[in-house]
Automatic annotation (TrEMBL):
Keyword Metal-binding: no
PROSITE patterns: HTH_ARAC_FAMILY_1, HTH_ARAC_FAMILY_2
SUPFAM superfamilies documented for this protein: Homeodomain-like, Regulatory protein AraC
InterPro entries linked to this entry: AraC-bd, Homeodomain-like_sf, HTH-like, HTH_AraC, HTH_AraC-typ_CS, Tscrpt_reg_AraC-type_HTH
Highest taxon in the source lineage: Bacteria
Keyword match Ligase: no
Residue ranges of domain HTH araC/xylS-type in the record: 189-288
Listed name of the protein: Arabinose operon regulatory protein
Length: 307
């Protein structure tokens, strides 16, 4: 079972930035977090109030997952994520993955970096960028150099690490502003929006989505996998299931009605897909969610009115 550990103040200061309780009271700290299944690092980080600075995360291997309410986003090898100070941190190893090894750097930016930190967002206050495959080694090397420089300590180590981080940000900025380089195509965002607006339409085809953003179906499929790392159909299925989970948690609608509202007219098929994605049937999920909410409310009451 995956654990979720939140930031807590302890009597003894935590000196390991890989573990909860570390203060991050610094301008820059960096590291490599090698999370293997059932290892001592195999827990979910949860910082509901964000942090004072930014974090850039680069996945080396395996897969992580970022949770945003009832929506989830995978972190696959080669993905870069930028968490702003306002971002909620709730992430860990993907339950289906054997590991999630990622490099990261926490920093408080120099004033003139402002424009370089405006990344396209796939979730609130959290930017996403996937370098071209051939550039992945460059980013990984820069992260490794930042981590090594910080570990050396000394009078100028933080300054040198900040300069290396600046190189990383400039390289990413150059790749998205240079017209000769591939950019994160805004039509992908438009396609996602279109599908979210038509989740209940079980007749929707990839060709319909492609037409809405003036692309061929094959071109949309290629760009979608290139930029988001999943197929169009898989992304739509994930959004349907996420919406179904929200309705199961917050409404009294029947399971058949919820399935229909997210594009599954066949209740048995809806239950089968839901179980494949979540590990439980819709009815089991609703019961478990109800129990979780009840336990949370009881815990909050016990904190307010201790016996």
């Amino acid at each position: 079972m995956l654990r979720t550990l939140s930031h807590r103040h302890t009597a003894e200061p935590q000196l390991d930035p890989l573990l909860p309780g570390y203060s991050f009271n610094t301008h820059l700290v960096a590291g490599l977090t090698p999370i293997d299944k059932e290892s001592y690092l195999d827990f979910f980080i949860h910082r509901p109030e964000g942090m004072k600075g930014y974090i850039i995360n680069y996945t080396l291997k395996g897969e992580g997952i970022i949770l945003e309410g009832n929506t989830s986003h995978p972190c696959r090898a080669g993905d870069l994520w930028l968490f702003s100070p306002e971002a909620v941190h709730h992430y860990g190893r993907h339950p289906d993955a054997a590991c999630w090894h990622h490099q990261w750097v926490y920093f408080r930016p120099r004033a003139y970096w402002r424009e370089w930190l405006k990344w396209p967002s796939l979730m609130a206050h959290t930017g996403f960028y996937r370098p071209q495959e051939e550039d992945g080694e460059i980013y990984s090397t820069l992260f490794a150099q930042i981590i090594e420089t910080v570990s050396l300590g000394g009078l100028y180590s933080e300054m040198l690490a900040m300069n290396l981080l600046e190189q990383l940000l400039i390289r990413r900025q150059q790749s998205v502003t240079d017209p000769l380089q591939r950019q994160l195509d805004p039509r992908i965002h438009a396609a996602c929006q279109y599908m979210n607006e038509h989740l209940s339409d079980n007749q929707l085809e990839i060709s319909d989505v492609a037409e809405s953003v003036c692309l061929s179906a094959s071109r949309l499929s290629h760009l979608f996998r290139q930029h988001l790392g999943v197929s169009v159909l898989k992304w739509r299925e994930d959004q349907r299931i996420n919406q179904a989970k929200l309705l199961l948690s917050t409404s009294q609608l029947s399971i058949a009605a919820i399935g229909s509202s997210v594009g599954f007219d066949d209740q048995l098929y809806f239950s089968r897909v839901f179980r494949k994605c979540t590990g439980s049937s819709p009815s089991e999920f609703r019961v478990n969610r109800s129990h979780q909410l009840l336990s949370k409310e009881e815990g909050q009451r016990s904190l307010r009115w201790p016996s």
